[in-house]
Design a protein that fits this description.
It comes from Anaerovibrio slackiae. There is one protein chain. By secondary structure, the protein is α/β, with parallel strands linked by helices. It has three domains: about 130 residues, 3-Layer(aba) Sandwich (Rossmann fold); about 120 residues, Hect, E3 ligase catalytic domain fold, CATH 3.90.1750; about 200 residues, no CATH class. Helices cover about 45% and strands about 15% of the residues. The protein has 14 helices and 16 strands. The strands form six sheets. The protein has a four-stranded parallel sheet, sandwiched between helices.
């Protein structure tokens, strides 16, 4: 072991876990390490900290940053200083692996409260301290799991973020009226044959966000479709925990489930967002062999609405090329025609789409004046439940941020420690930035609700809307058409359009 020298250079590491501790623990550890360093004539050249991180594995940003720093500067360093050895690791294998790596770099560990002598008894004491730390961590983990199971058996939410579409109130899931429509849309779209990517794109187009206020990506759709909570069923202990060599069980493996007898299920525990019928219809599609929801004719507006009167088949959308220019032509066709069982002609896609949308608009708006329509539109916008709830939620979030800023300001006024003051000032900057974003969103929402559309604007919208709908082929456009078109029946000579 190396002897202490004047100004011996060291790095220091502090950590508090997510269970039973708080950020003040970091300041207390730093204070003890500073006093110890003065006594030992150590110079702390770099501090590393991890907040609310378990010591049972090495996946900690501060710890990893310390390893990277040591790898570069180890020739200048002598020790890693901690308040207690369990701050470094609560896993014996990981602790001694770290210690061995330090030894190869001619470094060692120094602990304020677990001073270890370079003797047989000293090494035994160190080993006991680390083993006890692992034992206590495992006991704490078991007790925490037992409490979660007890909570689950009472059908209470067991911590963590509520699923999209829900909030937690008094330990129970309640519907979040702003998020629930996105969940309904996900299930309806998948049931209609759309894949994860198409669903994510449509949700983003409509302005929906995930629970973390981020745009949807296709990976975020799958878990929602499998979640039984959306039909009102409380479920706990369903997913297997991931296990890696040398580490305790960590995150859940949502793609692998436990046996049914190990899963807690309580039906009709909380309000459902999705009906059981729709949920199980989606599960059937998810489990169907080779089901990928990638139909090539999904972009055709009238897909599924056109029927052949001669053979009874439903027309599909298709594309072909013609001539040297390889110009593409899109059309609807009877699938029986290709196998020689039907002689009904193909229908030009663009002509039929345009005809149907124009007829619907003519029937819908012909007898209504633009003045009356603008009045109805403005009333609907002012009374729109989702927009008003969003405005209410934004105002509540702004008030929460203002309270948080006030608390931080009061705390700052009584703190002298420069490190703590700097941390509080950084938190205040973050809160102010969040408030600015929220206030901008609220101003936009208030402007939208206050907007008054004139008769002239509505008249212009009616004029251009049929072409816009035909060319901007969205999921909502298809639903609008399905609401107005009962069926389109085709034979060799006629096309009969029946409206709802």
């Amino acid at each position: 072991m190396m002897e202490n020298q004047a100004g011996t250079k060291c790095v220091a590491y502090c950590r508090y876990s997510s269970y039973g501790q708080n950020p003040l623990s970091i300041e207390q550890q730093k204070h003890c390490i500073v006093q110890y360093a003065k006594m030992m004539n150590f110079t702390i050249v770099k501090w590393f900290t991890d907040e609310a991180k378990t010591g049972t594995n090495a996946k900690r940003d501060g710890y990893i940053a310390m390893l990277d720093y040591i790898a570069i500067h180890y020739k200048e360093l002598s020790f890693v200083v901690v308040d207690q050895v369990d701050r470094l690791h609560r896993n014996v294998m990981n602790y001694y692996s770290f210690k061995k790596d330090l030894t190869l770099k001619n470094m060692d560990i120094r602990s304020v409260k677990n001073e270890v002598e370079d003797t047989v008894i000293g090494h035994l004491t160190e080993s006991l301290a680390v083993s006890v730390a692992q034992y206590l961590a495992e006991v704490t983990g078991v007790r925490a799991k037992q409490r979660l199971m007890e909570t689950a058996e009472k059908a209470q939410h067991c911590g963590g973020t509520a699923p999209l579409g829900y909030d937690v109130r008094n330990g129970k899931l309640v519907i979040n009226q702003l998020e629930a429509p996105a969940v309904k849309e996900i299930f309806l779209l998948y049931n209609e044959g759309y894949g994860y990517k198409a669903i994510a794109q449509e949700l983003n187009r409509q302005g929906y966000l995930t629970k973390k206020k981020q745009p949807f990506v296709q990976n975020s759709i799958r878990d929602i479709l499998f979640n039984e909570k959306y039909m009102g069923t409380f479920i706990y202990n369903k997913a297997e925990a991931k296990q890696k060599h040398g580490e305790s069980a960590g995150k859940r493996n949502t793609h692998k489930n436990k046996a049914d007898e190990d899963i807690i299920r309580i039906e009709n525990d909380h309000p459902a967002i999705i009906s059981k019928e729709l949920f199980f219809a989606v599960q059937e599609k998810l489990s169907a062999k080779g089901s990928k929801n990638t139909s090539k004719d999904r972009s055709y507006l009238l897909r599924g609405m056109i029927h052949c009167k001669d053979c009874g088949a439903t027309f599909t959308g298709d594309t072909s090329t013609s001539g040297k220019s390889k110009k593409k032509y899109s059309y609807y066709r009877c699938p029986s025609k290709e196998v020689g069982k039907c002689s009904t002609k193909k229908l030009n896609r663009w002509i039929l789409d345009k005809l149907v949308t124009q007829l619907i608009f003519a029937g819908t708006f012909a007898k209504k004046s633009a003045t009356k329509l603008s009045s109805v539109l403005n009333q609907k916008i002012r009374k729109d439940e989702i927009l008003n709830k969003k405005l209410e939620m934004l105002s509540k979030n702004i008030a929460d941020q203002e309270r948080k800023l006030g608390n931080l300001t009061n705390t700052l006024s009584v703190i002298d420690n420069e490190i703590t003051r700097k941390r509080i000032l950084n938190q205040m900057d973050t809160v102010n930035a969040n408030m600015k974003v929220l206030q901008d969103e609220r101003n936009t929402m208030e402007s939208l609700l206050a907007r008054q559309y004139t008769a002239e604007e509505v008249q212009e919208a009616i004029r251009i809307l049929p072409e816009y709908i035909r060319t901007h082929n969205t999921i909502l456009t298809r639903r609008w058409l399905q609401a107005h078109v009962h069926s389109i029946d085709v034979d060799k000579n006629n096309v009969e359009i029946k409206f709802s």
